[in-house]
Design a protein that fits this description.
FAD; Butyryl-CoA Dehydrogenase, subunit A, domain 2; alpha+beta; four-stranded antiparallel sheet; 12 helices; AcylCoA_DH/ox_N_sf; AcylCoA_DH/ox_N; Acyl-CoA_Oxase/DH_mid-dom_sf; Acyl-CoA dehydrogenase family protein; four-stranded mixed sheet; binds acetoacetyl-coenzyme A; globular; 3 domains; 386 residues; Butyryl-Coa Dehydrogenase, subunit A, domain 1
Length: 386
């Protein structure tokens, strides 16, 4: 086993780190406070290749591997979780799904602008009545004689929904068939029949925009079906396997930022005549933070490696992705909690980013499959039982 990264991997990591520290970190608190979508930064990230890292150059991306994606995501998330959420949805939930299942013409049309950062993509699976139980969706696509579909229904919690140009949508086309009756569609948000609801006010990742969307007699053309009719649930699950590695990377970046701030503070801050880092209770917390952070980092890279292998040789990486997401998100929650505690009043104050890290960490345990769903996926795959 070789723990060294390639020159290309180190190069995208350095590009992401430089942009994150110079352009994102200085404005992250302000965008969070205003709940404002960082459109200019996202466009620039696209120009740097960060919005379609694994997308081949012919479709507007950087043409790099899954490890590169993880390394870049960690750097962006260490500066601001919300930026990394937008990056993650663009890269994996949107581009990754289309790369695997779309035709060459569909990729040229719908992946290219998103990977290049000139437009934003989104992924619509969740509904007001169905989150974890994704097959219980009510959004309907009814096939027309010419091969197109008419779509009606609502989707909720759509990350980047308020600004997305294109959306990868999952709708029920044959309710009798359950999971095998779901089809994936490409939605153009500028067309008639597409509506946006209000932007959700959120606890964390406040600079990433989230809303409900609704379709009223929205017409999908026959060449806007992604994959085959009835293949939508498998597409969604496969895309989420990749997405979960993105969320794990985000959790690692966020936790690393909280950890590094804590090390610096424990060296500087004095109490009872000494640095607080010399107290055993602080040391125990720091040691546990370090172990959880390193374990999360390694599991996330291993999941990315497994994904790369699956892309090259076939097969799935659902367990590796779920193990990485579960471990990294619960570790990020724990690490940011300890970081706030060690910072005391300063951890609770908006003068420092710790309270933001703490608020942002929570979502990593919820979206793209809750911790409970990750445990279900892991245990089902391990036991073969349902
Ligand atoms: N890859 C490919 N196929 C898969 C798969 C995967 N990872 N997981 C399941 N499938 C296939 C199964 O093999 C099965 O196929 P067959 O019909 O041929 O046998 C089919 O899909 C149905 O599978 P299950 O019976 O296991 O389905 P289920 O109804 O029991 O659901 C679940 C499984 C794991 C609970 C799934 O519903 C799930 O992951 N739920 C969570 C959904 C989720 O993550 N939502 C997040 C929303 S997106 C988001 O957060 C976006 C954002 O904006 C950031």
């Amino acid at each position: 086993m070789d723990f060294r990264f390639t020159e290309d991997q180190l190069s995208i990591q350095a590009i992401a780190r430089d942009f994150a520290q110079k352009r994102i970190a200085p404005v992250a608190a302000e965008f969070d406070h205003r709940g404002e979508f960082p459109l200019d930064n996202i466009r620039e990230m696209g120009q740097l290749g960060l919005m379609g890292i694994e997308v081949p150059a012919e479709y507007g991306g950087a043409g790099m591997d899954s490890i590169s994606y993880v390394l870049a995501m960690i750097e962006i998330a260490a500066a601001d979780c919300a930026h990394s959420t937008i990056m993650s949805v663009n890269n994996t939930l949107y581009c990754n799904g289309l790369l695997k299942f779309a035709t060459h013409e569909q990729k040229l049309r719908y992946v290219q602008p998103i990977a290049a950062g000139s437009a934003i993509g989104a992924f619509a699976l969740t509904e007001p009545q169905s989150g974890s139980d994704a097959t219980a969706m009510r959004c309907r696509g009814v096939k027309q004689a010419d091969g197109g579909y008419i779509v009606n229904g609502k989707k909720s919690w759509i990350t980047s929904g308020p600004v997305a140009k294109y959306i990868l949508l999952f709708a029920m086309t044959d309710p009798e068939k359950g999971a095998r009756g779901i089809t994936a569609f490409l939605i153009d948000t500028d067309r008639a029949g597409f509506h946006r609801g209000k932007t959700e006010p959120k606890l964390g990742i406040r600079a990433s925009a989230t809303c409900e969307i609704e379709f009223t007699d929205y017409r999908v053309e026959a060449d806007e079906v992604i994959g085959q009719e009835g293949e939508g649930f498998k597409i969604a699950m496969g895309v989420l396997d990749a997405g979960r590695i993105g969320i794990a990377s985000q959790a690692v970046g966020l936790a690393r930022a909280a950890y590094e701030a804590t090390i610096a503070y424990s060296q500087e801050r004095k109490a009872f005549g000494q640095s607080i880092g010399s107290f055993q209770m602080t040391q125990a917390k720091i040691a546990d933070m370090k172990c959880k952070l390193e374990a999360s980092w390694l599991l996330t890279l291993r999941a990315a490696w497994a994904k790369q292998q699956a892309q090259e040789n076939g097969g799935r990486f659902s367990t590796e992705a779920a193990v990485a997401k579960l471990t990294a998100s619960e570790s990020a929650m724990w690490i940011t909690h300890q970081a706030v505690q060690i910072h005391g009043g300063m951890g609770y104050s908006k003068e420092m980013p710790l309270e933001r890290y703490f608020r942002d960490a929570k979502i990593t345990e919820i979206y793209e499959g809750t911790s409970e769903i990750q445990r279900m996926v892991i245990a089902r795959n391990e036991t073969g039982l349902r």
